[in-house]
Design a protein that fits this description.
Layout (H helix, E strand, L loop, with lengths): L2 H16 L16 H5 L33 E7 L2 H11 L6 H16 L18 E4 L4 H7 L3 H13 L7 E3 L10 H11 E3 L7 E9 L3 H12 L4 E9 L2
Parallel strand pairs: 1-6, 2-5, 5-6
Antiparallel strand pairs: 3-4
The chain binds zinc ion (ZN) (2 copies).
């Protein structure tokens, strides 16, 4: 064994000692998400969720969207909770990138369940054979600089692999103010003005991936941008539907 490989393995072992895997939900050593935290995840029952905005109990009436979002259907895996916030924060802000496939798997599970539920037009909320490509809500240049990676690209890549669909890098965001500094209307204007569709998307059916839906501003702006450029439909998938 050469010196470089020995050094690499020692460094790896040292890292494991210095930073043993801890549960991102409760900090307990062992797994990335421990059994107790996994059991406490607030899975949304897709039969009761709003087909248009994925609000957890919006199937009969929904104040979250009034059924006027541009998405063909919207599917989220989890409602908001403390554990869920810890998962999202660990992934986005603490660079726990091993969560990307975990998050993608949660979304794939929700999409699978939603395939048995009708969208607002009566067709299944999700059908992989009716999707041409996976796209994602791109990070703003500011968050990309701050984090050093586009977290949704990682999730979208993992999800596309899981669903055996191609990933399409068609949405680009120019510099704009940080969404977190802005109110509801400001968020919508901010992202809409900064979005560009950089490839021909005419006639395509997309699965658009985002992490957390709260107002739906980013998701809807991306959907509108794709539809304005001639995309046929946008089905949205998110990890969390917050309020
Ligand atoms: Zn835990
Ligand atoms: Zn709704």
């Amino acid at each position: 064994m050469d010196i470089a490989r020995v050094a690499h393995r020692v460094a790896e072992a040292a890292l494991e000692v210095a930073y043993p895997t801890r549960c991102v939900g409760c900090g307990r050593p062992g797994e990335l998400i421990c059994a107790d935290c996994r059991a406490a995840l607030p899975w949304i029952d897709q039969r009761e969720a709003c087909p248009c905005c994925s609000a957890p109990f919006g199937t009969l009436t929904c104040t979250g969207c009034k059924y006027d979002w541009e998405t063909r259907a919207c599917v989220a895996a989890w409602a908001a909770s403390r554990t869920v916030t810890h998962v999202v924060t660990a992934f986005k802000d603490e660079r726990e990138l091993r969560l990307a496939p975990v998050i993608a798997a949660a979304m794939a599970t929700a999409l699978d369940e939603a395939s048995a539920c009708p969208a607002t037009d009566g067709t299944p909320r999700f059908d992989a054979t009716a999707i041409d490509a996976v796209v994602y809500v791109p990070a703003s240049p500011g968050s990309y600089r701050r984090r050093g990676f586009d977290h949704m690209r990682l999730v979208a890549t993992a999800l596309a692999g899981e669903l055996e669909l191609p990933l399409a890098d068609v949405l680009v965001r120019a510099d704009a103010r940080d969404q977190r500094e802005l109110g509801r209307s400001g968020r919508l204007e901010n992202i809409a003005g900064s979005l560009q569709v950089c490839q021909n998307v005419a006639g395509m059916d997309f699965l658009l991936v985002d992490d957390v839906i709260t107002t739906g501003a980013s998701l809807r702006a991306c959907t509108r941008a794709l539809l304005a450029r001639g995309a046929h439909s946008v089905t949205a998938a998110a990890l969390v539907r917050g309020w």
